Every structure is written in structure tokens, then in C-alpha cells.
Amino acid sequence: PSAEMITLLWSFIVSIYSIGGLLGSSSAGYLSVRFGRKKTMLLANIPALLGAALMGLSRLCGSFEMIIAGRLFSGVCGGKLAFPSVYAGEISPKKLRGFINVTSTVFLALGKTVARILGLRELLGSQSLWPMLMASCGVPALVQLVTLPFFPESPPYLLMHKGDQEGCKKAIRQLWGEGQHQAEIDDIMKEKATMKNTKILSVLELVKEPAFRWQLYMIVILTATIQLCGINAV
Q1: What is the mean pLDDT of residues 124-137?
Q2: Most buried in the list 27, 35, 44, 173, measured by CB within 10 Å?
Q3: What is the membrane topology noted in the UniProt record heading this document (predicted)?
Q4: Which domain holds residue 207?
């Protein structure tokens, strides 16, 4: 293939991750309500492991199409990146919830830093080891797939979406130990009562709602500016 075709192919490989992210994020809300936070995170590991396997074996099979498919599957998993922080926030005690939500951003940045270091030519970014580098994204997915089943489901999800008060209490005791946790349960019940009186807007309804117009403009401008600054290309 010509140099222009090679550039086109690699540009497509880089950008298709965002298409996968769009697919993953668009289905995330439904899956989180249908299956719960914990099961949704477990399901997200499947495309992550599949993508890692495809990219890791691409050179052995001599197929750049496998890299494209692997990037797409990795993007689907990446589209659900909000769920670990949501789950961590919901299972943490109220006094630690803000701290836990902030640390998720710290670990996200730390993960990117580790990936950049591993990508150096002196480490896994060499001519012979780059398939291993691309497959390394499956390691955290495998760790989560093995360890997450030992954690309980989110107590707010059990109480608010499933109406399982006993399951909620059991999950709270498993997470926070024995003791009086009625105050936390009462807070969840209050939040549930508030949600009943709050209409959940669709994307189209949100765009049409005048009360949220300026907030929506600000979010769109900020997000578009981040994309246009070139950080994704870098």
C-alpha cells in the first residue's frame, strides 16, 4: 500500500476508539439500571479482554484488521469508564464519598502515566514488543473480572431500583462492617423519594428544555474545545 493509505489506516485505527466509546457510553445507562453497577462493570471487561486478545495476536496473524476490531472493542469498554467511579462513590460511606470520587480521577491520570511509560521504546514500545503493549490493556480488566465478584452490589442500587431493603442492609454490613447504618439507609430512601418526583429527560428533551439551555451551551463548548485542542491526536 502507498504511504497515504498507510497513514489513512493508522488514523482510522486511532480514531475508531472514539466510535467504540460512543457505543459503550450510549448503552451504559440502560445496562446500569437493567443489570446493576457491579454486573455492568463485569460485562465491560468482556470487550476489553476481547480487544486485548485481538490486538495482541494481530502481528502473529499478520492482520491489521484485528487491530481495528481490537481498538473498537477497547473503546466500547472505555465508554463505560464512569461506572467504576459511580460504583465506588455509592459503596463508600457518606463522609468519604467526595474523597473517593476525587481519587478516581487521580488513578485515571496515574493509569495514563503508566501507559505512557510502558510505551517508551526502551520498554514495550519496541519493534518486537508492541503487540504485548497493546494487549496490556487486558491486564486491569482481567484483575477486575477476578476480584469484582467478591464485592457486593451497590446498596443504593439495591434499594432504589430493586426495592431490596434486606439486600441493601447486607451489602452495607459487608462494606462498612457491623453497626448502626440506619441513617445511611434513610438518606437513600429520601433520595429515592426525590427521584420519584423528578422527570428523567431524554437527550432530545434536554436539548429542547429552555431552563438548561445555557448549561448545555457551556458543556458543548468546553467539550468541543478539548477535542479541538489536539490532545487526542497527541
Answers
A1: 89
A2: 44
A3: Multi-pass membrane protein
A4: 199-233
Task: List Cβ neighbours of 101 (8 Å cut-off, separation of 6 or more).
Answer: 85, 88, 89
- The secondary element (H helix, E strand) that includes residue 177 is none
Residue 217 placed within a domain: yes
Per-residue model confidence as pLDDT tens digits over 143-155 = 998 998 898 888 8
Look up residue 75 and give its DSSP letter.
Answer: H
Residue 50, SS3?
A: helix
Q: Which three cell numbers stand for residue 37?
A: 453497577
Q: Is residue 223 part of a domain?
A: yes
Q: Residue 129: how many CB atoms within 10 A of its CB?
A: 14
Is residue 118 exposed (0-12), middle (13-18) or buried (19+ Cβ within 10 Å)?
middle
Find out whether 28 and 79 touch, Cβ atoms under 8 Å: yes
In the chain, the number of structural domains is 1
Instruction: Please tell me the distance from the alpha carbon of residue 143 to that of residue 123, in angstroms, as a whole number.
Output: 22
Whether residue 172 lies inside any domain: the answer is no
